């Protein structure tokens, strides 16, 4: 059993980028699916597919690279809130990643969203990870 499934998700993506893989398979959960949707909407991954095989299912993520230079779209993806030390951000303490060039993915009462969307909806929540 994995104690931190979100850290496992981020590590699989990070390892696949370092190995220049095109596709990475990750065991699915509802939170991981929402994080994948946010990454796709913000242009950090090329595509994704949810497969319902077995009791859990898998997420197939197609990673995005620059067509000429082969530089990955995700330069860094870091876990912020850990099971041993949760990090929460209110409206006034919302993080800005690379002065607005990156995104912070938050789990709020209105769902999983970026820091900009949370500011616009005037909600706070748990800071899951930083992506840039």
TrEMBL record:
UniProt entry tagged with the keyword Kinase: no
* Gene3D superfamilies with a match to the protein in the record: 3.30.1370.30, 3.30.1490.10
InterPro entries in the cross-refs? Ribosomal_uS8, Ribosomal_uS8_CS, Ribosomal_uS8_sf
Q: What Gene Ontology molecular-function terms does this entry list?
A: rRNA binding; structural constituent of ribosome
Which SUPFAM superfamilies does the record match to this protein? Ribosomal protein S8
Its domain of life? Bacteria
**Keywords associated with the record:** Ribonucleoprotein, Ribosomal protein, RNA-binding, rRNA-binding
Q: Where are the transmembrane segments?
A: none
Whether rRNA-binding counts among this entry's keywords is yes
GO BP terms: translation
In the UniProt record, which is one GO cellular component term?
ribonucleoprotein complex
Q: How does it assemble?
A: Part of the 30S ribosomal subunit. Contacts proteins S5 and S12.
User: Belongs to which family?
Assistant: Belongs to the universal ribosomal protein uS8 family.
Tell me the NCBIfam families matching this sequence: PRK00136.1 (NF001109)
Q: Which PANTHER family match?
A: 40S RIBOSOMAL PROTEIN S15A
HAMAP family given for it?
Ribosomal_uS8_B
Function in brief: One of the primary rRNA binding proteins, it binds directly to 16S rRNA central domain where it helps coordinate assembly of the platform of the 30S subunit.
Name recorded for this polypeptide = Small ribosomal subunit protein uS8
């Amino acid at each position: 059993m994995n104690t931190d499934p979100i850290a496992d998700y981020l590590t699989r993506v990070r390892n696949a980028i370092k190995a220049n893989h095109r596709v990475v398979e990750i065991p699915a959960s509802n939170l991981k699916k929402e994080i994948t949707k946010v990454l796709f909407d913000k242009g950090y991954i090329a595509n994704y597919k949810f497969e319902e095989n077995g009791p859990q299912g898998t997420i197939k993520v197609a990673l995005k690279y620059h067509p000429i230079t082969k530089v990955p779209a995700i330069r860094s993806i870091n876990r912020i809130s850990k099971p041993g030390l949760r990090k929460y951000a209110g409206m006034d303490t919302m993080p800005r990643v690379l002065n607005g060039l990156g995104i912070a993915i938050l789990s709020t009462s209105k769902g999983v969203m970026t820091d900009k969307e949370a500011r616009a909806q005037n909600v706070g929540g748990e800071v899951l990870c930083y992506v840039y």
